[in-house]
Amino acid sequence: MTTQKTILCVEDEDDLRSDIAEELEAANYRVLQAANGSEALALLEKNRPDLVLCDITMPGLGGYDVLKALREQGSMVDVPFIFLTALAERNDVLTGKQAGADDYLVKPIDYEILLATISARLDQVARVQTSAVHRAEESWQEILKASQGRTVEALYKATFAFDRFLVGVVIVDEAGAVRVMNKEAQRILAEEDGLGASQGILKGSVAKQNNKLYSAIEKAFEEETLDEIISFPRLSGGRPYLVLIPGQRFSPEERPEAVVLLVIDTEQRAKVSGDTLVRLYNLTPSETRVALMLIDGKRLDQIAEELEVAQTTVVFHLKNLFRKTDTNRQADLVRVLLSVPLRTAAD
Q1: Helices 285-295 and 311-325: crossing angle, nearest 10°?
Q2: Which of 2, 14, 324, 334 lies at 20 to 30 Å from 291 by C-alpha?
Q3: Which helix (H) or strand (E) holds 261?
Q4: How many helices (DSSP H) and strands (DSSP E) are in the chain?
């Protein structure tokens, strides 16, 4: 089922705004209405629309002010923005484009052109999102497919598919001995800041967490649906490392020679804002905050305490995250969130 797209319509003429909203709702869009720039900014604090339609000339904050504020919010830098205006001169159009608007529609509004323009812009965003998600998922599936071959040699090339993600990939045997790792994993383990490779064995600085790690690795050789997440605190006091351990037993007859672990430096991930997650999954600001805290390895009660909300509110956001990422378990959700592409092939 296609998720209903949300359009923010900012227009100070009440009748025109109502007419636009009516046309958009008839076309199966959800519409947020604002009579001026101040109302628009208030709505943007709590909502992330899929597209903004905005008049230029309004009392108080005008359209350029709204556009500037939107583009300064990292999580909404790529939301399509369309100006609605009676200013039809070529210089007016150029000014709007140069300010960062994606399109410029002149009043009186031709509703067929309006709907066609909106559809084209949303389709463009969807193509970018789908491409990015597919690239991430293809890389992950390539690793799992290679691991089904049960040989470290088969895993070697697939592992480096993750070099353009901020995700370390480590291949270990049953004893936790490192057989292969990509560049990000090499960087993480070389820091020896709470997680490293002692005598070739993957090992953290906390004995209790190491016991969990080795137990999970042992299970990964036997189970297909395992999805363990183990947090290792940094000696420096920064954000923790996370080790994600998926099950990799593909059949009773096929036991892997080694298993794939994903190692995440959440300190490094924190340097990347929630922009990528917002773009890929159309998250609201609250959902993005919860998602980033889950990436940090925080429990639901910790998230509720830090956000100063009830745990039921966090659960509500979690359910939305499940729906938007097509997952149904917290471990699967974190794996998806951590597998989004955060570097291009050129990086």
Answers
A1: 90
A2: 2
A3: strand 259-265
A4: 14, 12
Q: Is the pTM of this model over 0.70?
A: no
CA distances 292 to 119, 136, 239, 265, 273, Å, are 30, 18, 12, 13, 9
Count of structural domains, the chain? 3
Lowest mean pLDDT among 2-11, 86-95, 108-117, 177-186: 86-95
Burial (CB count <10 Å: 0-12, 13-18, 19+), residue 319: exposed
Residue whose pair of structure tokens reads 């359910």 in the numeric block: 319
Q: What CATH number has the domain bearing residue 318?
A: 1.10.10.10
The DSSP symbol for 5 reads: P
pLDDT digits (tens, 9 = 90+) for 115-147: 999 998 888 776 655 444 444 445 555 555 554
In the structure, what pLDDT confidence band is assigned to residue 6 with cuts at 50, 70 and 90?
very high
- pLDDT, tens digit, 9 for 90 and up, residues 196-233: 998 899 999 888 889 999 998 888 888 766 667 788 88
Q: Is residue 248 part of a domain?
A: yes
> HSE on the CB side for 128, CA within 13 Å?
15
H or E stretch at 46: helix 37-46
Q: What residues make up the domain containing 258?
A: 149-269
Whether 339 shows a pLDDT value over 90: the answer reads no
